[in-house]
Design goal:
Elements lengths: L15 E4 L4 E4 L6 E5 L11 E3 L7 E4 L5 E7 L8 E9 L3 E6 L3 E4 L2 E9 L6 E5 L13 E3 L4 E10 L5 E2 L3 E10 L3 E5 L3 E3 L4 E7 L8 E3 L7 E7 L4 E2 L15 E8 L1 H6 L5 E10 L7 E12 L15 E10 L3 E13 L4 E9 L12 E4 L5 E6 L14 E5 L1 E3 L1 E7 L7 E5 L11 E4 L6 E9 L4 E12 L6 E4 L3 E3 L2 E7 L5 E7 L6 E2 L5 E4 L3 E11 L4 E11 L3 E3 L3 E2 L10 E2 L2 E3 L1 E9 L5 E7 L5 E3 L8 E11 L4 E10 L2
Parallel strand pairs: 1-7, 9-15, 17-36, 38-44, 46-53
Antiparallel strand pairs: 2-5, 3-6, 4-5, 6-7, 8-10, 10-12, 11-13, 13-14, 13-15, 16-18, 18-34, 19-26, 20-32, 21-28, 22-27, 22-29, 23-26, 23-32, 24-25, 24-27, 28-31, 29-30, 33-35, 35-36, 37-39, 39-42, 40-41, 40-43, 43-44, 45-48, 47-51, 49-50, 49-52, 52-53
């Protein structure tokens, strides 16, 4: 036999790395009194860069050198013990960093991007996030955070520079609300139309909860896939105690577990299809293959189980009896069929297995959470298969509030009755607070946003739609020769419409006259005022119109001036009709004051000039006789005088 005597030695602890305003806190051990010095080449010890925290012993000191320094500590240990040690404080380049998050409030199923950017941003930094719960990775600069449980989450990130400087002074906080962002589709009946017309917006909720409890053979067809963890207790059953869904301390066990609707709603699960179920096993004891493992589910109005009432009947099998291999941690079972939960009823889950008559060994306990009500009923026996349709006459039974922790994977929905809708902008909307609204935009393009969610949960989704309208067809025309004439008045129309107008329809204001020609002519037979309308359709299919007025006079019109000045200045040099319309033929005879005829002007209605006298014609007053035949055959005679002024 040999005896080993371990002697105490002096230690200054591990080397440290500091940067910027950081300091090194050094604690020496192995002795009572300590003396500190430096290895030559370091930063000399001064009252400003070295502080003894527990004088006169100086076992705890703060070192704040301006450059890398190795310190020597010597203790009062005697004898053969080592009474000295060295510690190096490495002073490296400082760095800063910015820690950000894309959002600070999430709903179930949503994610947030966390990000750390050091400065200077050189290769070689390492990152450590704590805790790692909900993060895609805990050792990268930009993990994604996503959650299946509502609550508040706080994260600290530790950053180590390539030189070994460590910083950890920023906390990112996330709040996860107990609700989902509604999964919906926004459809637009027609996103492009003509100005003045409109369209319809429709919001279709894609993940409404089922209206019944029971098997869903179609599986998960709509909604948001999410995980809900029911129970977070850390207590663990024993190898012999019950409840124990994996309880092989007896040959066969059967358990029923009650989950209140209020508990699921508190997690944010408002109804949907349960597709997977998991339980958390703390230790595998005895057998690892559980034969005939099965799961049944159903809904109930019971708020608590009672052993005197027995098991709830009428459940549906969602996991057929199978031999399952268990492991420590979460054991997951894919349900076939899935189970619809209506968001209202309480849920019963039954687990059963039988190793009869192959023997019994020990329970593999699960983690559980204590409920405020009786949430578990259980049967166990060595002498029968409790999973048979006929319950054996002899078995042990019990009730408990120690409910196994479970995790559900679901296609979760929202309660459409609780959703609110808000549209922006509201201009042109028939119902700015409804899932369906007609819209006649006042601008183009017009961008509308709808926000949908349950205000009680605080989870909202948004979608946008953009509409465009094309302007009306740009149509116009010019009546020729003018807008006013004497019946019968013949007018032609000069079509001045835009080149993208592809078809035309004319109405001439007399209830019968129409045309589809590009440039029609029209004869107005009777006097009156006529509104001419041209309708056009553009190559975008949009209709436009243009109107002008034609005035048709009942009698021929003649207006004769009473003075003119043929002096060659270009202004009023000729004796001309001011207005001459509605005549087939006219003639004008001019006399001097002595009644002598000086000029005769037979003209048609289109010729407005009556007389251009020679320069030899004297100034003075002349007399005229006008005789005209109207388009309607009537005769018009006028007599008057005109003054010639040079």
């Amino acid at each position: 036999m040999y005896a080993t005597n371990v002697l105490e030695r002096t230690s200054a602890g591990p080397d440290q790395t500091i940067c910027g305003p950081q300091i090194a806190e050094i604690e020496a051990s192995g002795g009572l009194n300590f003396v500190w010095s430096i290895i030559p080449g370091g930063d000399p010890i001064t009252g400003q860069n070295f502080t003894c925290l527990d004088p006169p012993f100086c076992s705890q000191v703060i070192a704040d050198p301006s450059s890398t320094t190795s310190y020597i500590v010597t203790s009062d240990l005697a004898g053969t013990c080592i009474n000295g040690d060295t510690v190096t404080v490495f002073v490296v380049s400082d760095f800063t960093f910015a820690a950000t998050q894309s959002d600070d409030t999430l709903c179930l199923g949503e994610t947030a991007q966390l990000n750390v950017v050091p400065n200077p941003n050189l290769p070689g930094y390492t990152f450590e996030w704590t805790p790692s719960l909900g993060l895609s990775a805990d050792d990268i600069a930009d993990p994604i955070a996503g959650y299946s449980q509502p609550g508040s989450y706080a994260y600290m990130v530790e950053i180590t520079s390539p030189d070994g400087c460590v910083k950890q002074d920023t906390t990112l906080n996330l709040i996860v609300l107990a609700g989902f962002v509604p999964d919906f589709t926004l459809t637009v009946a027609d996103s492009s139309f003509c100005e003045g017309q409109g369209t319809t917006f429709t919001v279709d909720i894609d993940n409404s909860p089922p209206i019944y409890c029971g098997p869903n053979y179609a599986g998960c067809t709509a909604g948001i896939v999410a995980d809900f963890e029911l129970g977070t207790g850390v207590d663990l059953g024993t190898t012999t105690s019950y409840p124990a869904p994996y309880g092989n301390f007896y040959n066969s066990t059967r358990h029923q577990v009650l989950v209140r609707a209020s508990e699921l709603l508190a997690l944010g699960f408002t109804g949907g299809t349960i597709n997977e179920l998991s339980m958390n096993i703390g230790a595998v004891n005895g057998i690892s293959i559980y034969p005939g493992w099965s799961i049944q589910m159903g809904c109930t109005t019971l708020d608590s189980l009672d052993i005197n009432d027995g098991f709830v009947s009428g459940l549906s099998q969602v996991f057929a009896p199978s031999d399952v291999t268990i492991t420590t941690g979460w054991n997951t079972y894919v349900l076939n069929p899935g189970f619809n939960w209506d968001g209202v009823s309480n849920v019963v889950v039954e687990f059963c297995f039988s190793n009869y008559p192959n023997g019994f060994i020990s329970n593999s306990p699960t983690y559980y959470t204590t409920t405020a009500y009786t949430s578990v009923l259980y049967y166990f026996t060595d002498g029968a298969n409790l999973c048979d349709t006929v319950t054996p006459p002899f078995f042990n039974q019990g009730e408990s509030n120690q409910r196994p922790n479970m995790r559900f994977r679901v296609c979760a929905g929202v309660n459409e009755d609780l959703l609110v809708y808000s549209w922006t902008p509201t201009d042109g909307l028939s119902d700015p607070d409804g899932p369906i609204t007609d819209v006649v935009p006042i601008v183009t393009p017009a961008v509308y946003t709808v926000t949908v969610g349950d205000p009680n949960l605080g989870c909202f989704g948004t979608a946008t739609a953009t509409t465009y309208w094309d302007p009306p067809a740009d149509v116009s025309f010019v009546p020729l020769p003018t807008n006013e004439g004497v019946a019968p008045f013949v007018v032609s129309f000069d079509n001045t419409s835009s080149s993208n107008v592809t078809s035309f329809t004319w109405t001439f204001g007399d209830s019968t006259g129409t045309s589809t020609e590009f440039e029609p002519g029209y004869t107005f037979e009777t006097a009156g005022t006529y509104v001419i309308t041209l309708y056009g359709i553009s190559d975008q299919g949009c209709t436009g119109f243009y109107q002008d007025t034609i005035v048709v006079l009942p009698d021929p019109v003649v207006e004769i001036p009473n003075v003119f000045s043929p002096n060659g200045d270009g202004d009023n040099d000729a004796f001309s009709y001011r207005d001459l319309r509605g005549f087939k033929q006219v003639e004008m005879t001019i006399f001097n004051r002595w009644g002598q005829k000086v000029h005769e002007a037979p003209v048609t209605a289109a010729n407005g000039t009556i007389w251009r006298p020679e320069t030899s014609v004297a100034e003075g007053t002349y007399f005229y006789v006008f005789i005209g035949q109207g388009n309607d055959g009537s005769e018009v005679k006028r007599e008057g005088h005109v003054t010639l002024v040079r």
